[in-house]
Amino acid sequence: MDIRWANIKAAEHVGNPTFVDNKGFHAMHLKFKVPLIHPNARETKNTDFLTLQADLVYERRDNSFPPPSSDSLKTTLQGIVSRRTLLVYLCGGPGAANPAFENDEFNTWFIDREQPILYLNYRGTDEQTCPKEGSSAKDLVYFRQDAIVADLEAIRLCLDKNLNKNPDKKLQYRLFGQSFGGWIALTALSFTPGGLKDVMITAGMAPVKSSPDEVYEALYKPVIKANEVYYGEYPQDKERVKTIVEWLAKQNDDKGVQLPDKQRLTARGFLTMGRWFGREKDGRKEVHKFVKMIAEDIDGSHGIKQESIKQFATADGAGFKLDKRPLYAVLHELIYCHGPGVVSNWAAQRVGRQQAGDHFAWLNDDFDFNNVRNAGLLYFSGEMIYEFMLDDAGPNMQPLIQAAKDLAQKNDWPALYDKEQLHKNKVPVKVMSFQGDMYVDTELAEITAGMIGSCARIKPQPGWSHRSIKKHTNEVLAEFERNE
Q1: What pTM value is reported for the model?
Q2: Which has the closest alpha carbon to 414: 131, 37, 11, 10?
């Protein structure tokens, strides 16, 4: 979708704000109607609309007062908009919803500074906007980050037009992007900079110049290191892992075992658990817990106990939640397809087979799991989506598999970034990247930061990592504030 950014129309504010009952904060639930297809260069006619859901957190909760009325909420919303700035939190993803109450410290920090926070569920991430069953590749191109930025701009125009009682000053966003949220923020800086007051990004500097292959060549390096650390801590798991994948490969003609949510745990699927390694020591402990538990089941009873299968599924053992967010699998590699001529073609899978070494030989179709005892050490993969994962992901993924395969071959993508605009950018930007980040390569992030005008790097404290905005919230935000 090659969006005509100057032609974005204001969203429609649907209904009245409703009070959100939360133990710590006052918040209101908002709905906005936007077109599935925003104005675009191809003049594609739009006949469908999406109703986007958002929560606006605006003050600490005072239990001495009853819940506010609808009219009171409208007055409050009008006052917030008329203050001219609204912080928008952009969560990771893609394909993930944006819950408002996962991080009380984050909300408290900004509420105490009289800064309300808007949490918008990205299109495609809830029941109201998820792709229809049987959606084609042509349909799913409208769920990338450029469309999300167009949604945000349409909402800003709606609020500014209908609620801003200070016509001399238009409403502007302050963006805070975490991980994939940083991708969205960079697209907004490229195409809607006039609607932005400032931008903060943690662990989310998109590799705007790199191909998908170059991205994964970089990302396998910290994954390999994480495996070395893991097996150094748990050397007994070297054989346990082989025991597990050998057993799984023999079940149901290599289809593994079915989980309660109807996903399948296969030999290859088990080896995708390395996504947990991005959580460092806690993540390694989680992987070891399952390796030990399942291996002991197999050794002791010649099969995985139902209780172990239930625990694995409940904890989302592989870490991807593809049954709950199938759009993540569809869009994941496409976030690296930043313009015309770029094709993903299952880049993580190809790079893993070609360049990551014998430890990832299990990615090859002809890998013999029955002879795994004679193979080298098996490494877990990281935040990589492989084609076989779609077949393992259960019934919610099935309707989108063909579209995902078609999109993996698509090469006529519109630009996600305007590199010239980023270079001459005047909107204040602060970024924090983390050395050894398993999800967002540090060196590629630095290249991006170096090409953006008015961009300040904020140095993290030793030991901080990709999820530090969640684990060390106040400390991270204090670093951003200290550098104002």
Answers
A1: 0.96
A2: 37
